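Run log, item B.
One chain of 545 residues. Sequence copied directly from the ordering sheet:
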Amino acid sequence: MKRSLRVALLGAAMAIALTACTTTGTSSSSGGGSTGSSETALYGGTMTTAAASDPETFDPAVCTGATCWNIMRMVFDRMYDYDGSTSNLKLQAAEDFPTVSDDGLTYTMKLKSGLTFSDGSPVTAKDVAYSYARVLDPATKAGLAEFWKGIAGAEEYAANPTGLPSGIEVVDDLTLKITLTAPNSSFKYVLAMPAGSIIPADSGSTIATKPVGSGPFTLATFEPGVQVMLDRNPNYWDSPRPYVDHVHMILGVDPDNQVLMLQKGDIDLMGSPIPPAKFLQVTTDTKYKDQIVTIEKPSTYYLTMNLNTPPFDNPKVREAVSYAFDRTGLLKLVNGQGKPATEFIPPGVLGNSGETMTQEQNVEKAKSLLAEAGYPNGFDTQFYAWNVAPFSALAPQMQQDLKAIGINADLQTLAPNTFSELAGSGKAPLALTFWVADYPEGSDFLQALLSCATAVPQGQNFAYYCNPEMDADVQQALAATDPAQATADYTTASKLMLADNPVVPLYFGTKTEIRGANVGNYFPQPIWGWDMAEYWKADGSTARS
């Protein structure tokens, strides 16, 4: 559910390219974004940002929230990262892309030599192995641990987390070998997620509050509810990056005030999307024309129905709800920031079929289905949503749409973290949520959000949906070496899932951003959001040498 976020996505042909070791990239990125008011890279200055909420943690294995997600990219390195404004992988801490065995199970990776953490200690394969194993330790409470459970020995390690899982082997100081239980074309992307961040061995007990990484910035101060200050890492390996000396993140600023602060020049970047109430004012003002960019995010906004909560255990009830909503009408409430969802996997993600698998609004059909299910007079239920845009605009209208078919939904809006805890615990009969791709493959939607393995407390499967047949189709897609075959498998899985209606896809999101006039080389990153190491201040003090 994370972050805010993303644009120019990888095509299907790129989706499994790293397995064949054909992805291109270098250890540094040219950025590829707008240069703002300066075309010359500059050193110095402070990039000031604002966020609506505090970072939930500085532990990259635990981070899933929007605020900490951006911080993770600033403080830590991963073996691989995303290049500029694309979804192409590039080298980061790795010396080269992995050597993958013929059976697709074993990845051999080598670190760059000479990398150091911000405390001066060397980065070694032992640190990488520890970082990965720690994700699989239940005591870590890694929110996205499911992505890592394909590593051989993961289940045994979770039961007895000592040493390393059998599938993680330190070959030498710079070489690591990982063995999977089954071919997984998305594993390369898993290594580029926040949980793939490299931390010093045995630092798990302190990393959440005293993060030590090898990334472009270091944490200087954190005052809950007030601010985060990050300093440029002077020993960062990817010189001349980063360009700014400091990143100042002001906390607890609602999106409306973020717009006002940016317009006054008090901040350079907004951590939240432009709120609906300010959207037209900002986007139609010609003086901001060169500061605005609209991106297509690999994201789906959707409603979940908890299959463990009556009457949503009744397939007819769920089918009725699938006919309740006017997607075009909902998009008007968010200033057209998206397009109606025709399936669950969004465009730009391997597995999007381009077919229509969703239902148009049909109130009479919905009422008829409720009558067939034994609810001719409808029923009462609870409906939960975030208390921030765009959900604060969408949820009241959806409440009315449900009422029109006979469902009286008591709407409760909650802070994002509270919402996630409640929905994850299985206490939300209806939940309005969204997901932005962690990586551009369909497993990140079907497996992460709707698999049997994630139908557990505090997982992301708020519907508690489990269909082994769908899971098998996803596994087949992950083993495919041909993108067309993978798409076909994902399409089969999507149709099977949507026939059960555990979710109602509403729309695929876009995001319109405004940056400060003095932000140089700005581009939004489709997977991460910001690439702060690449940006500079046009009022910086010195030109790049």
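Observations after the first pass:
- The CA atoms of residues 409 and 527 lie 34 Å apart.
- The first helix runs from residue 66 to 75.
Flagged for discussion on Thursday.
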